[in-house]
Amino acid sequence: MTLAESVRTQLERVLHEQRQRERLESHGFAPISRLLLVGPPGTGKSMSAAMLARELSLPLFTVRLDGLISRFMGQTASKLRLVFDAAARNRAVYLFDEFDAIGAERRIEGDVGEARRILNSFLLFLDEARPESLVVAATNHAAILDGALFRRFDAVITYDVPSAEQAIEVLRRRLTSMNTAEVDWDDLMGHVGDLSHAELVRAGEIAAKDAILAGDDSLSTLALRSALDARRAARHG
Ligand SMILES: Nc1ncnc2c1ncn2[C@@H]1O[C@H](COP(=O)(O)OP(=O)(O)OP(=O)(O)O)[C@@H](O)[C@H]1O
Ligand SMILES: [Mg+2]
C-alpha cells in the first residue's frame, strides 16, 4: 500500500502494541484496540483494516452499518448485539464501515429512540471490547460523529488523497506487470490532480488493459495521461 508517512507510523504502532500486548498487560496497560479511520473514499481505510488482520493473522469481519440500519429498521440494536456477542468470544479484526451512519441521527428519520439505542449499544460495546480484538470504524465524515462516540477510540487516523509523488507510486505499483520503460512519470505528475488511490488504480488498469488488448504490453505516457484526465473529468462532471 502507498500511505502517508504519518498513517504508516500509526498503523505500525498498532501492530507493535498488539504483538506485544502481553508485555503491556503485565504492567497494567492495554494495547491500542479501538481505531477510527477517517478520510475520503478510496484512500485505503478498508484496505488498512485488511492489512492489520493479515499482519496479525486474525480473521476480518466487516459490518456495513448503513446497510444494517436500513435493513433492520427497528431492530438494528439487537442485530448489532449479535455481532458484539460474537466479538466478545472471538479474537479478530472487526471493521464497521460507513460508521457515520451511527452518529447521524437525522438519517433514521422518525425514530430517534432507535438511533439512541444503536448509539448506546455501540458505546457499551466499545467499552466492553476485549483489547485483544481490534475494532476498526471507518468513515468519510468524522464531523458528524457523536462526541461520546469519538472519545471512545484509542486512536484516530486521518487519511487523505495522495500527494503527486505518492500518486505516481500508486500507479507504478499497479503497473509492475507492464513495460513502463517509456513512461514519463514527471509529466504524469501534472495529471494526477486530487485523484484518490482507488481512482488512480482504476485509471492505471484501464490504460494497461487497453494496451494489452491492443496486443502490446508497453504503456505510453499519452495513454496514461488520457486515462488520468478521463478520471478527473468524470469526477468533476
Ligand atoms: N493507500 C493505498 N495504496 C494503494 N492502493 C490503494 C490505497 N487506497 C486504496 N487503494 C486502492 O483502492 C481500492 C479501494 O480502497 P479502500 O476500499 O481501502 O478505500 P476506502 O478508504 O475504504 O474507501 P471508502 O471510504 O469508499 O470505503 C483498493 O482496493 C486499492 O485498489
Ligand atoms: Mg472502505
Q: How does this structure look, described?
A:
The chain is α/β, with parallel strands linked by helices and 237 residues long. It has 2 domains: 5-158, P-loop containing nucleotide triphosphate hydrolases (Rossmann fold), CATH 3.40.50.300; 164-236, Helicase, Ruva Protein, domain 3, CATH 1.10.8. The protein contains 12 helices and 5 strands. The chain has helices spanning 5-19, 21-26, 45-55, 65-71, 76-89, 100-103, 112-128, 147-151, 164-174, 185-189, 197-213, 221-236, and strands spanning 34-38, 60-64, 93-97, 134-139, 155-158. The chain has a 5-stranded parallel sheet. The longest helix has 17 residues, at 112-128. The radius of gyration is 21 Å and the shape is elongated. The relative contact order is 0.15. The mean pLDDT is 89. Bound molecules: adenosine-5'-triphosphate (ATP) and magnesium ion. Adenosine-5'-triphosphate binds at residues 1-3, 41-47, 138, 140, 170, 197-198, 201. Adenosine-5'-triphosphate is lined by residues 1-3, 41-47, 138, 140, 170, 197-198, 201.
